[in-house]
Amino acid sequence: MARQSVTDDSSDRPGRAVLLVCLATLCFVAMAVCVKALSASLGVVEIIWGRYFFHLAITALLFPAILRTFASTPRRDLQIVRSVLVLGATAFAFTALKYIPLATMTAIGFVGPIIVVTLAALVLKEQVPPSRWFAVVLGFAGVLIILRPGVDTHWAMWLPILMATCYACYQIMTRVLRGMASPQVTLFYSALVGTIVTTGLLPWHWQTPGVTEWAMMIASGVFGGGGHLALIKAYEWAPASVAAPFVYSELILSLIHISEPT
């Protein structure tokens, strides 16, 4: 099947890609703040459902043409695999937020860029300069300091590592899929798979939300969808090994919200 043409968008533009990665991290921190607040009263499955359902609804409203074309997009198998990976990352992250502070989860999750850069070199055959390896190794050292291997830590402290692994593979898949479909179609698949899976589980986990909780679930869908759209575009415009290290900007943003209790 012929690839959909997105030639103008898929050429490398590293400067714009870096800005989009920073915008994506801002959206993800805002989403995490909503999730952290929701976790005090709602279960993880319901929170994940709200995040993906409203992401799906908003994407369909903004880009209605997707409803006619998403089923015929090339490499639907890769779209589904990518969507399952991001759903796994979401599940691990939201579960972790129920038990540990946002800044701690974000900091541990920074093992992700190391995985991305490694996979970019091995799978995508990208050329990674020594300076970029040095940056991600420093990040990994910071993760080890936080985790303190050998010291008794809460079991949830390991969930961000699983999140980072899924998220890193998702980022590589995003780079692989560039040029095969529009960013809007890729964004729609992410929301569709997450909504279908969590809707099937929802009857066993439903608690009726209040007005504030509904508002925060809608906000989590807006921020989550916006962040993923920015990230999809970023990985169209720059190699994965270039864009990935800039997710470290998320640590600064999450530390601004460090006033939450531990």
Residue windows where pLDDT falls under 50 for at least 5 positions: 1-10, 251-262
Mean pLDDT: 74
Computed structural class: mainly alpha
What's the SSE pattern? HHHHHHHHHHHHH
Overall 3D form: globular
Number of strands: 0
Count of runs of 4 or more consecutive helical residues: 13
End-to-end gap:
52 Å
Strand content: under 5%
Sheet having the most strands: none
Q: Supply Rg.
A: 18 Å
Helix content estimate: over 70%
Salient structural properties:
262 residues; 13 helices; 71% helix; disordered C terminus
Strand and helix layout:
Elements: H1 7-10, H2 14-38, H3 44-62, H4 66-69, H5 76-97, H6 102-108, H7 112-122, H8 130-147, H9 159-176, H10 183-201, H11 211-237, H12 240-243, H13 249-256
Helix pairs in contact: 2-11, 2-13, 3-5, 3-10, 3-11, 5-9, 5-10, 6-13, 7-9, 10-11
Q: Would you give an account of this structure?
A:
The structure is a single chain. The radius of gyration is 18 Å and the shape is globular. The chain contains 13 helices and no strands. By secondary structure, the protein is an all-alpha fold. The chain has helices at residues 7-10, 14-38, 44-62, 66-69, 76-97, 102-108, 112-122, 130-147, 159-176, 183-201, 211-237, 240-243, 249-256. Helices cover 71% and strands 0% of the residues.
